[in-house]
Amino acid sequence: MNQEKETHKPHQHAGRSSERLLNKEIILKELDIFPGAVILDAGCGNGYMSKEFSRMQKNSGKIFALDPDKNAIEILRQETPGTNITPILGDVTKTTDLQDSSIDLIYLSTVFHGFSRSQIDGFNKEVKRILKPKGILAIVEIKKEPTPFGPPLEIRFSPQELNEIIPLSPKKTVEVGQFFYLQLFENK
Question: Where does this protein have coiled-coil stretches (predicted)?
Fold first, then answer.
């Protein structure tokens, strides 16, 4: 693994700028969110997908919106009182306060490519700890091909590379925008 991948910061990503480029309808259809589901929106940024999940669930279930950006979490906290969204300051590459086997769906969008090798190891460990049996991990990433924005190609992951790195059962890959794909995994 090259040195750049090791030192790349997790929040130097397309994040907020990618929101308008993602096809949320396809993502939401593929996630197949059910009423009462417990969802973790890891690296939630401004929480736009947490709000979509909440709308789909009609305020049933529970959505944990996790991000290491204190300002983003504080703003989301102010925007979502009385909803099923719980903003949490934290990092999914480290142990969180979430309970073992408590999450039905973990959603991570345009963040994974910024993880170092040790962060990937921490992410895999935390995902295995908090995801329920048969729970789903959904990773949205920028395609590993030239795009008009985004991180250097050498730190991006193809769906095949994700399948080799993530210790869950790969389910399917879906295009979710001109420059993005969604990779779904199931906990064994």
Answer: none
Strand runs labelled E in the chain: 38-42, 62-67, 85-89, 103-109, 131-142, 169-175, 180-186
d(C-alpha 53, C-alpha 41), whole Å: 9
Q: How many helices (H) and strands (E) does the chain have?
A: 7, 7
Do 11 and 68 form a contact (C-beta atoms < 8 A)?
yes
State pTM to two decimals: 0.90
Residue with tokens 């142990």: 95
* pLDDT tens-digit profile, the chain (188 residues): 333 333 333 333 334 457 788 999 999 999 999 989 999 999 999 999 999 999 999 878 999 999 999 999 999 999 999 999 999 999 999 999 999 999 999 999 999 999 999 999 999 999 999 999 999 999 999 999 999 999 999 999 999 999 999 999 999 999 999 999 999 999 98
| Residue 57, domain CATH | 3.40.50.150
Distance CA 138, CA 75 (A): 25
Domain ranges, residue 95: 3-186
Token pair listed for 88: 């949490």
Alpha carbons 11 and 100: distance in angstroms, whole number? 26
